[in-house]
Amino acid sequence: MSDYLLDIRDLKLAFKNYAGLVEVLHGISLNIRRGEKVALVGESGSGKSVTARIILGLLQELSSARISGSVHFEGQDLEALALRTRLALRGTKISMIFQDPTSSLNPVYTIGVQFNEVLKRGNPGILERDAGTRAVSLLQDVSIPEPERVLASYPFQLSGGMNQRVMIAMALANEPSLLIADEPGTALDVTVQAQTLHLMRDLVERRGTSVLFISHNLGVVREFADRVYVIYKGRLVEHGETSELFHRPRHPYTRALMAAVPRITGGGIPEIAENSSGFTEPLIDHEVSP
Amino acid sequence: MRRTFSILLSNPLSVIGLILVGTVVFSALFADFIAPFPSHRGAVVDFSNFNQPPHWPNIFGTDLVGRDVFSRILYAYRISLMLGVVVLAIAVPIGVTVGLAAGYLGGWADFILMRLTDVFLSIPPLVLAMSVMGVLEPTLTNGMLAVTTMWWPWYARLVYNVTRSEAQEGYVLAAEIIGASRWHIMFREILPNCVPSIVTKMTLDLGFVILIASSLSFLGLGVQAPTPDLGSMVAEGGNYLPDSWWLTVFPSLAILIAVFGFNLLGDALRQILGSDQ
């Protein structure tokens, strides 16, 4: 258990509304080792993003959320931690990257000011000047030319790809042990997305940061992740090493998901059944039953 | 900043607004130097030269006790502007805090604060101000208090709406995720994004506060004699229309200029700040 950085067991989530309880997650268990890149793949509304929010402890604050199961981070049960300790993890040990980099930066502050705040979060006593030099070197790490100019710019003056790099640099600024990437770069075009993903992979590999990569893009997942979990309607349906899972998908839903990717060589948009009884078959775990 | 000014100067209407506002503020600030008869702002009597139509040196004529109308208008501007600034200086922080809290915190805070705001908005403003002035003494301070009580809900509602939409933005979620406090998110992240709307409304409102304050003193509930006030000057002069027309026309024009100027400037700001987003 201690060799897992993040260990989620039988996590269930339901939202309470006027009509009663709406179940969103039906008991998912996943884990991430140190330095490992794990992908969580599924369609919209399958429960990918709420899982990330539970790890960060954002949903726990919501009075309508009913959560059961356990989330262990670095061997500690997050539920058992005091609120203050749990809050202290955010932005220091755990950080996150979002879909739309441009809206994730506040338009009224320069990148430099926002970078400074991120660095202060990790090291409250940091000097203005030291923060400046650190920000410059972090921006150089994500291959940003003229980091000084970027630090003096407002987010809307930079391109989406630039903002994405800035976000990556900020997310890794405090050397987190876990990076949650929620469909990073979905709002960007494909070439820029590929560049930033390469960059991100290099950076996390060099620093040994674990990544939980949330996506619906199978191509990206295949290139990026070591292991893949496939989630469908709040249940994990298949889990395995990336190459193993992509070469021999065994669950009907995973197969359907792979068939759903349009080919660049043509052949039209694939026909996929909206609902198939096979999709709800139980979890197939390649590591447990090869 | 330079860009803001160049846009401001490219539109003739906003130039007029800027000039009018500039004139009003300038005459209020330097009334002591511009006014030909500075002592006439108080209880001065000069029966040798009373109720005279415009002539040199009394270019706007003299009132019923022989005081220079022009000098009194300059000092009345000073009172009106001060009232406007003080009212907004109190009303805006209250309204902004209520709006931010209701918009960002949501739930019960939203319900209680915004329904309270609705209650204030449902009372006709002049009636509320009149009743406050009626219960308390009709002094300048109470006048400001009365106008303030009816003004903050508009800011609460404005900021509430902007906050609701800004709270959906990614940067708010990002701030929550790195563990920023609610206080930080409300005042450091969301508030700066509300500033354009607030500044625009404040400029527009300065004109309206002056108008409301004049209405109150027109009804005899505002600034009391002998302090010069545009509203009470219009009210007094109204009894002597049309013969002593200068007693009413010049203070009325003074109100018009101030309100019109702030409105044009506010509209110009709205266009400039709106196009930024």
Total domains of chain B, how many?
Answer: 1
Distance between the termini of chain A: 22 Å
CATH topology of chain A: Rossmann fold
Helix content of chain B: over 70%
Order of helices and strands of chain B: HHHHHHHHHHH
**Most extensive chain contact?**
A-B, 23 and 15 residues
Shape of chain B: elongated
Question: Topology, please?
Answer:
The complex is a heterodimer of chains A (290) and B (277).
Chain A: E1 4-17, E2 20-33, E3 37-41, H1 48-56, E4 65-73, E5 76-77, H2 83-89, E6 94-97, H3 111-122, H4 128-141, H5 147-151, H6 160-173, E7 178-182, H7 190-207, E8 210-215, H8 218-224, E9 227-232, E10 235-241, H9 242-247, H10 252-259, E11 284-285
Parallel strand pairs in A: 3-8, 3-9, 6-7, 7-8, 10-11
Antiparallel strand pairs in A: 1-2, 1-4, 4-5, 9-10
Helix pairs in contact in A: 3-4, 3-6, 4-6, 6-7
Chain B: H1 2-10, H2 12-29, H3 31-34, H4 69-105, H5 107-122, H6 125-135, H7 140-166, H8 170-177, H9 182-218, H10 230-238, H11 246-276
Helix pairs in contact in B: 2-4, 2-11, 4-5, 4-7, 4-9, 4-11, 5-7, 6-7, 7-9, 8-9, 9-10, 9-11, 10-11
In short:
The complex is a heterodimer of chains A (290) and B (277). Chain A has helices at 48-56, 83-89, 111-122, 128-141, 147-151, 160-173, 190-207, 218-224, 242-247, 252-259; strands at 4-17, 20-33, 37-41, 65-73, 76-77, 94-97, 178-182, 210-215, 227-232, 235-241, 284-285.
Structure, described:
The complex is a heterodimer of chains A (290) and B (277). Chain A has 290 residues and is an alpha/beta fold. Chain A has a single domain (4-285), classed as P-loop containing nucleotide triphosphate hydrolases (Rossmann fold), CATH 3.40.50.300. Chain A contains 10 helices and 11 strands. Chain A has helices at residues 48-56, 83-89, 111-122, 128-141, 147-151, 160-173, 190-207, 218-224, 242-247, 252-259, and strands at 4-17, 20-33, 37-41, 65-73, 76-77, 94-97, 178-182, 210-215, 227-232, 235-241, 284-285. In chain A, the strands form 2 sheets. Chain A has a 7-stranded mixed sheet, with helices on both faces. In chain A, strands 2-1-4-5 form a 4-stranded antiparallel sheet, with helices on one face. In chain A, helix 7 links the parallel strand 7 (178-182) and strand 8 (210-215). In chain A, helix 3 packs across helix 4 (128-141), helix 4 (128-141) crosses helix 6 and helix 6 packs parallel to helix 7 (190-207). The radius of gyration of chain A is 20 Å and the shape is globular. Chain A starts with a strand and ends in a 5-residue tail after the last strand. The model of chain A has no long low-confidence stretch (mean pLDDT 86). Chain B is elongated. Chain B is built from 11 helices and no strands. In chain B, helix 2 (12-29) crosses helix 11 and helix 6 packs antiparallel against helix 7 (140-166). The two termini of chain B are 15 Å apart. With 277 residues, chain B is mainly alpha-helical. Chain B has a single domain (2-38, 58-276), classed as MetI-like fold (Orthogonal Bundle), CATH 1.10.3720.10. The A-B interface holds A 56, 58, 63, 87-92, 95-96, 98-100, 103-109, 118, 121 and B 107, 169-171, 173-179, 189, 192-193, 195.
